[in-house]
Write a structure and sequence with these properties.
Radius of gyration: 17 Å
CATH superfamily: P-loop containing nucleotide triphosphate hydrolases
CATH class: Alpha Beta
Strand order of the largest sheet: 5-4-6-7-3-8-9-10-11
Number of helices: 8
Largest sheet: 9 strands, mixed
CATH topology: Rossmann fold
Structural class: alpha/beta
Shape: globular
Helix content: 25-40%
């Protein structure tokens, strides 16, 4: 089994080496947990390793997402070079706007979104993909059966292209004690859940690997922090092994 390293400090130790290549993984959490930033760092670190990637920003303008990432990760000095050198593509808002304007976004328009994503992947030979956020597709495709079919189709297409994908999704509640997963979460190969607990300025962030098909992983709920140099996950595992 080939494992894809995330390059994120402490996370690869929790994954006992990384994400199995070709897995489709949900990153779930409430607002402010850092889902988008975690996925961006995954793409950025892999671009540094020579693995080109696509960030498909469906929820906000790609330029705004990129500005937020640069503001959070001020030590990532070569982001623009990675984009110029086609190691990363940041795109995607226009397709979701088209779906919103369509009379029937559940069928033909969704297929066009996937087609645009495939074109971006092919244009640079991407092996890593981020979709932010799959929850937007849920809002656009209101029928639960149609949405489930769309997710199955999306997963199938990404597997066919042999890309390793992270998809962000909003959790109904940011606290672990009130954890609930929607049925479609379990269509995916993996689930990484990000929580926030405590009160206001004393809030603590933590993450947990709920499942990762095809490999062993930690079951410990682990604190993390977000620094200018990236995420730091305080893994209980020996990070030097990974």
């Amino acid at each position: 089994m080939v494992q894809v390293k995330t390059g994120i400090q402490g996370l690869d130790a929790m994954l006992y080496g990384g994400i199995p290549e070709g897995n489709q993984v949900v990153v779930a959490g409430g607002p402010g947990a850092g889902k988008t930033l975690l996925c961006f760092e995954f793409l950025y670190r892999n671009a540094q390793m020579g693995n080109p990637g696509v960030f498909f920003a469906l929820e906000e303008e790609p330029s705004r997402m990129l500005l937020n990432a640069k503001s959070a990760f001020t030590d990532f000095s070569d982001i623009d070079k990675m984009i110029t050198d086609k190691k990363m593509i940041i795109d995607g808002k226009e397709p979701s706007d088209k779906m919103l304007a369509a009379s029937d976004p559940s069928g033909y328009e969704f297929g066009k979104v996937v087609s645009e994503l495939e074109d971006l992947i092919s244009s640079i030979g991407a092996t890593r993909v981020v979709i932010d956020s799959a929850s937007v597709l849920n809002m656009l495709i209101s029928d639960p059966i149609a949405y489930r079919r769309a997710m199955i189709s999306l997963i199938s297409d990404m597997r066919r292209l042999n890309v390793t994908t992270l998809l962000t999704m909003e959790a109904d509640n940011p606290e672990r004690s009130k954890l609930q997963f929607k049925p479609e979460f379990f269509l995916f190969d993996g689930i990484i859940s990000m929580y926030q607990t405590g009160e206001e300025e004393k809030r603590i962030r933590a993450m947990e690997i709920i499942k990762m098909r095809g490999s062993r992983h930690s079951f410990v709920t682990t604190p993390y922090e977000i620094n200018p140099s990236g995420f730091r996950v305080f893994s209980a595992e020996d990070t030097s092994l990974y």
